[in-house]
Amino acid sequence: ETGVTQSPTHLIKTRGQQVTLRCSSQSGHNTVSWYQQALGQGPQFIFQYYREEENGRGNFPPRFSGLQFPNYSSELNVNALELDDSALYLCASSPRLVGDEQFFGPGTRLTVL
Amino acid sequence: GQNIDQPTEMTATEGAIVQINCTYQTSGFNGLFWYQQHAGEAPTFLSYNVLDGLEEKGRFSSFLSRSKGYSYLLLKELQMKDSASYLCAVSEYGNKLVFGAGTILRVKS
Q1: Nearest residue of A to residue B32, measured between CA atoms
Q2: Which of A11, A53, B73, B98 has the most CB atoms around its CB within 10 Å?
Q3: Any chain A CB within 8 A of the CB of B55?
Q4: Could you tell me how many CB contacts below 8 A there are between chain A and chain B?
C-alpha cells in the first residue's frame, strides 16, 4: 500500500509568482486536506476536499485554491506569493470524512524570496 | 473561537514517564488526535479519543475529558527516539483538524 506522496520536496519562488503543489492520496482515501505549517507552529488548516468537492476552508485568502481529481490526487495553488507564504505545506488523506486518522505526506517546503 | 493550548517544551529522562497536557476550546468536536512530528518530517498518528477515558497503545496512552476540554498524552519508558514535537489536534467538522502549536519533548540520558 503506497502512502501519501507530495511533490516537489522543496521549492523556491519569488514574491508575486504562482506555485502548484501536488499530492497523491493513499489508496482508497477519498478525503484530502491541506495544511500550512510555519516554523515552530502547528499545522494550520487550509481546506479539505471530499470526492472532488471543497468541503470546508480555513482562514486563508482566495489566492489559495485547490483541486481534487477523480483519482483523488490533489493540487494546492497559491497565486501572488508573499514572503509569509514560506512554510511547509502538508497534504493529508483519510478514508472517510469523519472520525478517521489522517495520513500525512512528507510535505513540500516552500521558500518565498 | 478556537484555541488549543499545550506546553511549549518539556524535558524528561530516558526510562521515565512524561505527561503532555492539552486544553481545547473549539466550535465543534469530532474527536481529539495526538500526532508525533520529528524535525523536518510529517506528523505521524499516535492516538485518537472521541469518548471520555483512557486509550492505551503500547508505551503511549491518551486521556480525554470532554466536559473539561482536556486531554493528555502519557509516554512511558521514554527512549531517546521519543524526542520530537507532540501535536494535539481537535477534529472540528469532517476531518478538519485544529492543531495546537506543539510540545517539543527532549529526552536526555
Answers
A1: A99
A2: B73
A3: no
A4: 68
